[in-house]
Please model this.
Amino acid sequence: MNRTAVVVETLDLDESGWLLEAPGGDPVPDHRLNEHFAEHIAPPISATDLFVYVHGWQTSPASALRAAERLMGLAVHRLATAPDSYPTLSAAGFDPWCVVVRWPSSSAITPAGYRKIRDRAHAMGARDGVGHAAHILGQLLGYLDTERSHPAAAPVMANRDGQYLHLMGHSFGCRFLCEAVQWAADARFVDTLGWNATSSTSARPFTADSMLLFQMAARRDAFLSLFPHILPGDSHDGAPLRGPVVTTYSRHDRATGFWHLRAEHQSGIGHSGIGPAPAPMFTTHLLPLDVRYPHAALDHAFVNVDASDTYVRGRRLNPAGAHSDHIRPESTHLLMTLADYSR
Model:
């Protein structure tokens, strides 16, 4: 299958979640974060959609890059071969650019190894500990917000003349994204992040246009227990998300099923979908390529997508099951539909 090449840049974090100059290199000083972003990941003006992808468990730096390249290549191929499935993208143009955030996620493929990376991911992302991933990702998203093109008077960043921003995570990488966008819900950190989510006078409020979480490695009540500020509440304004939070799940995902059940006494989102949540949700199926998602199926604060009929494969003898079986055309069909409906 021929796929058009998409530029995919990389950023690397250490075990504390801090940004590195290069894989295994020195930490980037705090005062140089935006300078480092400008040197390594400046999105081209020609790009219509900016994607941030954070990988999950058991993913090497090279594998993370390949996964992002395959997802982006499949997306471009989908539009080229089925333009009628994404009419707005087809009419307005679609030129994606992607940055993949890489972090040390390898461990033994055992329940103990899964718990080790679960604990590491929590420590890296938690704001009340020594973790820095939420801060670094927040800085990255704030940088992309200031760099992406947009009309000066646009009421929101998502508009047909600007660049759209989409967040994608897999497994434990979903936690980092949720922590990063939730960080913006706390007004004390808005200036640090370069976001202005709480100001009604700003002509440039930050928004992410969609967040797609593949096989999320978190307990089913995570959006109540871990990420309660994703949506607006009595004491906070909510994360700067314009579009829905969409999660895929598959009963063939043993990592977030069998192992997660034993580690946290309930199955994970990647196995059973979001459970209790701060807003009503809609559940649908991961659709085949020849079936278009109705707008009403995705126009909700939270959307569970049952991928049990599609995410079925795992590497031979891999006890994680279909945990990493999301690099598929059907996944990019969902991704492209979210981008299409963001217009």
